[in-house]
Amino acid sequence: MENTIEVKNLTKKYKNLTAINDLSFSVKKGEILGLLGPNGSGKSTTINCLLSLLSYDQGSIKIFNEEMTPDSYEIKRKIGVVFQEVAIFEELTVKDNIDYFCGLYIKDKNTRKKYIEDAIKLVGLEKFKKFYPKQLSGGLLRRLNIACGIAHKPKLIFLDEPTVAVDPQSRNNILDGIQKLRNQGATIIYTTHYMEEVELICDRIIILDKGKIIASGTLDELKSLATIEEKVSVEVQDLEEKYLEEIKKLKYVDLVTYQNNNLQITYKKGQNNISHLIDFFNKNKIAYNKIFSERPTLNDVFLELTGRELRNE
Questions:
Q1: Full-model pTM
Q2: What pairing do the DSSP bridges indicate for beta strands 230-236 and 288-294?
Q3: Which stretches of 70-137 are DSSP H helices?
Q4: Topology of domain 3-223, per CATH?
Q5: Nearest Cα residue to 80 out of 32, 152, 142
Q6: pLDDT in tens for each of the 313 residues of the chain?
Q7: CATH 3.30.70.100 for the 230-295 domain, yes or no
């Protein structure tokens, strides 16, 4: 497939800090790429370089097969950006906000009118056209922010944490809208710390850390990198410490936690792990219920690759 973005050997330094280190990747036309990484990994710097908001020390960036520069205005007209911070005008209504931002790109009034209605419908704001931002909930404000960023029907869209601090209903609406944009032909760069969203909507994923790509591929390809094979959760009342220690010594067990009567066991490999665990419970007359198993999640892979220590910046 045709590439919308091609990045080769991109490097960005701040004095003694290398924020991006020899980064190379491409984004195919019509795909949703999840760009992930812990705080300080280089995500924001990468995006700002792609948008030509930051200069860089070496490498090249092509968007729509053309070199991206600060003066690439025709390219920029085809790009939509929705940053994490809501950027709208408090004195304008929902519809007038969308009209203003769409009008920066679309001058024909009839075309703009249709695009505005399409954007309102996409994010589900039909009942709120005449509302002012101060009258909207946090979720509705997020949806308005997205509508303002995509109303001109860009071919390439950058979405930075678009579902932060919104209710589940708004989150579902936003994710549905993003998938509709992809289905309409847009290419989307999606950054978030919500791994379940990435699992749901992204076609391909890149994980950055310390300015480098440490993993990339489809969800299944990334999950194959996990060293853990299975996670088992069991509800066990008042499990004695001696039994907890014995469970840790069972074959293939990698990690055991026990909190609020919830026993979680991570296995590195093995077959019939649940059967062996049940045998252990029965042998020791331990009462249990609600036992279930799951395979590694993207969150498991992410933590395994980037570490579990807190990142402060």
A1: 0.87
A2: antiparallel
A3: 73-76, 94-103, 109-123
A4: Rossmann fold (3.40.50)
A5: 152
A6: 799 999 999 999 998 899 999 999 999 999 999 999 998 899 999 999 999 999 999 999 999 999 999 999 999 999 999 998 899 999 999 999 999 999 999 999 999 999 999 999 999 999 999 999 999 999 999 999 999 999 999 999 999 999 988 889 889 999 999 999 999 999 999 999 999 999 999 999 999 999 999 999 999 999 988 888 888 999 999 999 999 999 999 989 999 999 999 999 999 877 789 999 999 999 999 999 989 998 889 998 999 899 866 565 5
A7: yes
